[in-house]
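> example.struct
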């Protein structure tokens, strides 16, 4: 490759990188506007992260870094300029942002740290954070789930010693059923047990199978509290909505697929006389419940 070609290729790449940073800045600004207008919620996504992954096609780590920048720019809008100039990059920014929010670091201190990590690599940023704040600045060990061949998965978690001792006690208590019980068998047993107790859908199936018809003198009378929803009706709603948020984008029909923090919502509000009936109740995730109230 001759010298002129070498130089022009380098110049062109430099221009592209500059443009790439400018575009990233614009994406972050747009994500901020989308969040302000709750557009991601209206489109049927339960969080900005879910929107960035499922609607924009970012990998989880790319989405996480961009959303960290959105959060940081709300507190310190000047970081947009620094991202644009390349003084800060998304990796060291998201590392700092995650630490700041975890440890509730105040804004002046955030500013001073950001100045120190300008033009730093990930490794250098980590060193600076540890120098300033000690080991608490290191990111907590993440739980890792990996798919393996067949229908198994590998779960890597860090347990407290006391938790491990509890697991061992449970293994001993279950030894009559399975003397060679592995932790994986025990976790499966625990899941079955907890789901029977906590999952309204599991409760509903068990009840449908075994429950006696509701009649006789032991039936509790209707509650005078208009917000009260009888347990059996709650379970019917969970079963009907398949334990999933029912919000759907009115334009595309996309249904929110969140199963996190679900709440039973009155379609016609209680304060306006909405009754606790199957027709007037539905499951909504926390985010869509708030959108409705907002
Ligand atoms: Zn939802």
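> example.seq
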């Amino acid at each position: 490759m001759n010298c002129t070609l070498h130089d022009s290729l380098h110049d062109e790449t430099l221009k592209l990188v500059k443009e790439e940073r400018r575009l990233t800045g614009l994406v972050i600004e747009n994500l901020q506007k989308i969040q302000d207008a709750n557009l991601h919620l209206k489109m049927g996504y339960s969080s900005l992260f879910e929107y960035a992954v499922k609607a924009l096609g970012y990998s989880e780590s790319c989405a996480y870094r961009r959303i960290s920048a959105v959060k940081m720019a709300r507190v310190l809008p000047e970081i947009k300029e620094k991202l644009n100039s390349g003084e800060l990059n998304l990796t060291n920014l998201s590392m700092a942002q995650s630490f700041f929010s975890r440890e509730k670091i105040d804004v002046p201190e955030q500013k001073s740290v950001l100045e120190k990590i300008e033009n730093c690599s990930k490794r250098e940023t980590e060193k600076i954070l540890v120098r300033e704040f000690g080991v608490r600045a290191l990111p907590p060990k993440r739980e890792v789930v990996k798919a393996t061949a067949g229908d198994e998965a590998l779960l890597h978690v860090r347990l407290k010693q006391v938790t491990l001792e509890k697991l061992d006690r449970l293994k001993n208590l279950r030894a009559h059923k399975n003397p060679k019980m592995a932790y994986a068998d025990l976790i499966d047993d625990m899941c079955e047990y907890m789901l029977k107790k906590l999952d309204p859908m599991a409760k509903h199936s068990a009840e449908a199978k075994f429950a006696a018809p509701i009649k006789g003198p032991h039936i509790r009378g209707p509650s005078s509290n208009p917000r009260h929803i009888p347990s059996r009706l709650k379970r019917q709603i969970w079963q009907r909505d398949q334990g999933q948020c029912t919000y759907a984008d009115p334009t595309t029909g996309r249904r929110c697929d969140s199963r996190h923090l679900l709440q039973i919502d009155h379609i016609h509000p209680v304060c306006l006389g909405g009754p606790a009936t199957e027709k007037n109740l539905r499951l909504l995730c926390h985010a869509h419940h708030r959108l409705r109230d907002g």
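> remarks
Strands lie at 144-147, 153-156, 263-266, 281-284.
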